[in-house]
Each structure stands twice: as structure tokens, then as C-alpha cells.
Amino acid sequence: MTTKTIFNMDANLKRLAMKKAKHQGMTLSAVLNLATKAFVGGELRIGAFERDLLEAREDIKAGRIISQEKLFKHR
């Protein structure tokens, strides 16, 4: 069973993605399906997310993050 997914994308980004997919003999739909499967399977990593997560962990280790409880105590 398949389902239709609708989301917004920058028009120029879509055009470039479709062009690249076509050059590789695929449709943009096929590319997005493959990327989604890879993401679910842990094979696709999102660099910005991982960078932010690493920075957050470093902030916690360095004591630059306070708990929600401490934050609300200060109010």
C-alpha cells in the first residue's frame, strides 16, 4: 500500500532535484522514497541535526545547560 505525502519545497530546489534525479535515470519520487527508507533504516544522517545534537551534549557536559526545574525556580 502507498500513500500520498504532500509538503512544501522551494521551487528552485525542486527543479534542481528533479533535474539531478532525471540525470540519474530516476524520478524525484523514487529519490524521496529511497531517502526516506534510508532515514528510517538509520543509513541517512542529517548533518545539521547531528551537529546540533553534538553541540547540545557538549553544552550539557560543560554545565552551560540548566534543568527546566532550575529555570523555573529562578522566576
What would you say this structure looks like, in words?
This protein is mostly helical and 75 residues long. It folds into 2 domains: 8-44; 45-75, no CATH class. The chain is built from 4 helices and no strands. It has helices spanning 11-23, 28-40, 47-61, 68-73. The relative contact order is 0.06. The model has no long low-confidence stretch (mean pLDDT 88).
Summarize the structure.
By secondary structure, the protein is mainly α. It folds into two domains: 8-44; 45-75, no CATH class. It contains four helices and no strands.
- H/E order of the elements? HHHH
How far from one another are the termini?
Answer: 52 Å
**Overall pLDDT, averaged?**
88
Query: In total, how many beta strands?
Result: 0
- Compute the number of structural domains: 2
Gross morphology: elongated
* Strand coverage percent: under 5%
Name the assembly state: single chain
Radius of gyration (Å): 20 Å
Helix content: 55-70%
Low-confidence stretches: none
- What does the main sheet amount to? none
Structural class: mainly alpha
Total helix count? Answer: 4
List the helices and strands and how they pair.
Layout: H1 11-23, H2 28-40, H3 47-61, H4 68-73
Comma- or semicolon-separated keywords:
4 helices, 2 domains, 75 residues, mainly alpha
